[in-house]
Amino acid sequence: MAYVLPPRLDTAAAPPLRVALKKLVEQAQSLTIDGSAVEQIGQACLQVLIAARAAAVAEGQSFALTAVSIPFADAAALAAVDLSAA
Amino acid sequence: MDLDAIQQIFFQECEEGLAGMEGAFAALRAENYDAETINGIFRAVHSIKGGAGAFGHERLQAYTHQYETLLDLLRSGALTLTPALTNLIVAAFDMLADHVAAARDSGEAPDDAVMLARLIAAASGDEAAEIAASAAPAASPVAEDEISFTPAPISLGDDFDDLMAMLGDVAPAAESNADDASTVAGPQDWLVTFKPTPNALDNGGEPLLLLRELVRMGGRVLSCDVSALPPLASIDPEVSYLAWSIAVPANVDEDDIRSVFEFTDGCAVTLSRGAAAETTTDELETAVAPSAATAAPAPVAIAAPTPSPAATAAPVVAPSAPKPAPPAPVVASVVAPAPTAVAQTIRVDLDKLDRLVNLVGELVITQAMLAQRLSENNMAGISELTDLDHLTRELQESTMAIRAQPMKTVFSRVPRIIRELEGETGKRVRLDIEGEMTEVDKTVVERIGEPLTHLIRNAVDHGLETPEERVAAGKPAEGVVTLSAAHHSGRIVITVSDDGRGIDRARVRAKAIERGIILPDAVLSDEEVDNLIFAPGFSTAATVSNISGRGVGMDVVRKNVQALGGRIGIQSKFGSGSSFSLSLPLTLAVVDGMIVTVGDQTFVIPLSHIVESLRPTDGAVTAIGVDGAVLDVRGSYVPIYPVAEQLGLGGGERDPANAVLIVVEADHGQAALLVDSIQDQRQVVVKSLEANYQAIDGLAGATILGDGRVALIIDVDALTAHRVRTPRPVLAHAA
């Protein structure tokens, strides 16, 4: 089941996002993330996603972004961050 | 400067941007535009979007984003401007203005779903998409970046395989480019490294916006350094850990790049050019060396790029393609004009300006006092005094010129009002604007908007006929509303005219009788009938509409105009249209006046009203009625108003033979003011009676004379309105 990212991923949304993704990694679940609803995403949440991807890779789990909205893709491209499947 | 103040500036800039866009639309409609016209519109929307993002106005940002996307396609030539598209971007502009207003007033953002859908549809039509794909390689990096916004969210989310295929195509190229930043950044390009401070995300800070700004200048984000990012378990999600390397075209000015980071406190920024690497940093110890990007343990790639399948990947994702050089000049030509324009203006707090104006006013008074003192000692002729007089006057004019603004700031709102009225009434209206660069004092500009809006609404709602009626009357289906501004003998005259049905005097009269405003047997001239529409509670609209209000409008219009020291006049011809003209003073702070004596008092008569001054010869004055008199001015008779009598002063001359008669132009035509003698003619600084005491009928204000005495300024219109002897509309309640 994919974890659906909320529409607004500003700095305030980063702590709960970290808690949620950390829990998923700890439960040894593969990280499947649906980013189609994202309307806004800032650096803070991008950092959490990068860290989550790294954590999944370190745990030998898979990481996949199943869908990205335009603002999400735009922000990721702008920041040149790697969220490709692993 | 706190955040609110900065935000205020943002909204001021929004207003300016919107006004500029409205001007550009006029050019589009007239098909008199070039690439720069569309660029101008794009830049305005882009700036609003940037500010909206910075201040967290998300709805505004989201809206401007789609708007900008469409404009960018037009700008880059990917879409061709058709009349339908022109209409769309104008309609989108109106909603943008609503969005800005909502953001500014913390109101509810307008429902933009339909408009957004239209913008998206227009931007992503199949035909357009094809053109976009083929045109993309020639487009500027800015355009490319923005095209990567191309809206098609549904197909993206639904078809993940396609997206992944696209990513597969692009990501490796990006990675290989990121491997060696210096090869991607041309030999002379700027290499910027940027690491926000750990607390950069506090208080809504968003370093990505700075990247966006660099990209707007033509820059390309080469890589993201994630080496400082702790593991998920120990990461503090509100601390900034990332750093970036960005290549910016060589022709971008260093200052422009630095200005991007102007408001970031202590973040590490290095700027180097090619191999020379002349580096300047704010915090060297944390600076990311240009080589750090390549040494980054976690090589990074531009993931999830061009989300729109319509834009068919590669050409559009060109930011990572290794051909940075050609687009650069395009960017330069787009970006360059902005700093020049900015450098020529400066924002000044209005309070400071008012203080300056006040001080200059005091200087004028002191100068007058000095002149008087010198003249008492027979030194009035000294040349230094004349010089001082000239300098003071010039200083005063220059100061007032700072406050002067073109009427354009008011007129630019009118096209939208007209568009809305067209929609509400089904009438077709062409707006002609003349003299929009005519300058007038800021106070006048600020306060004329409301009465002007009402006159425009009135012209369309009551003045113009429906297209069917017009055609039946042998007129073109499209009505014309003309708005003009011009300087006319020291005043500004603003005219709103239409080629509609004109005032139906019989109907106005009937309505006035019905409303009890005049008696059925009142004898009125055409002009007087026309003026009845300014009577409180008068409305001839068959049904009360939400356009022209509820009949409370025209009298309020007149009051507002009078409060500005202005007059309103009507000229109308039944069947061919009406024209309302507002005559307003250019400034409310200084007035050229004639200093006169009445009894033991000194008064100022504004020079703008004075036609001539006469000492009557025998037989020039003819008595009329009980105490009235008229003056024969070369064959035309002008009523005489003794100022002492009008203002209820004891003393003062009553006999015209011993007095001076000053012929003035007033609301009701010419009149002659009877005064004892003329003292002088000079500029005086108006001190408000309302602000310092209370409004007095017949007086427009006060001033301080050279000898320190206070003189009252006569309100010529009000003073002569009191004793009008010609037949006037007989008020029912007075009868």
Number of strands of chain B: 22
* Count of helical regions of chain A: 3
Q: Which range best describes the helical content of chain B: under 10%, 10-25%, 25-40%, 40-55%, 55-70% or over 70%? A: 40-55%
Based on secondary structure, the structural category of chain B is alpha+beta
Q: What name does CATH use for the topology of the largest domain in chain B?
A: Heat Shock Protein 90
CATH class of the largest domain in chain B: Alpha Beta
Kindly report the average pLDDT value of chain A: 87
- Measured as a percent range, the helix fraction of chain A is 40-55%
Q: What Rg of chain B do the Cα atoms give?
A: 34 Å
What are the low-pLDDT stretches of chain B, counting only 5+ consecutive residues below 50? 126-183, 275-343, 542-552, 724-735
Structural features, described:
- The complex is a heterodimer of chains A (86) and B (735).
- Chain A has 86 residues and is an alpha/beta fold.
- Chain A has one domain: Transcription Regulator spoIIAA, CATH 3.30.750.24.
- Helix content of chain A is 45%, strand content 20%.
- Chain A has three helices and five strands.
- In chain A, strands 1-3-5 form a three-stranded parallel beta sheet.
- The two termini of chain A are 17 Å apart.
- Chain B has 735 residues and is α+β, with helices and mostly antiparallel strands.
- Chain B folds into five domains: 3-123, Four Helix Bundle (Hemerythrin (Met), subunit A), CATH 1.20.120.160; 177-326 and 334-341, no CATH class; 350-402; 407-585, Histidine kinase-like ATPase, C-terminal domain (Heat Shock Protein 90), CATH 3.30.565; 590-722, CheA-289, Domain 4 (OB fold (Dihydrolipoamide Acetyltransferase, E2P)), CATH 2.40.50.180.
- Chain B contains 27 helices and 22 strands.
- In chain B, the strands form five sheets. A six-stranded mixed beta sheet of chain B has the order 14-18-19-17-16-15. A five-stranded mixed beta sheet of chain B has the order 6-8-9-11-10.
- In chain B, α20 packs antiparallel against α24 (553-563).
- The radius of gyration of chain B is 34 Å and the shape is globular.
- Mean pLDDT of chain B is 75; it is low at 126-183, 275-343, 542-552 and 724-735.
- The chains are: A alpha/beta (86), B alpha+beta (735).
- The interface between A and B is large, with 48 and 60 residues.
- Chain B: It comes from Sphingomonas citri.
- Chain B: It is an enzyme of class 2 (transferase).
- Chain B: Its EC number is 2.7.13.3.
- Chain B: Residues 590-725 form the CheW-like domain.
- Chain B: This is Chemotaxis protein CheA.
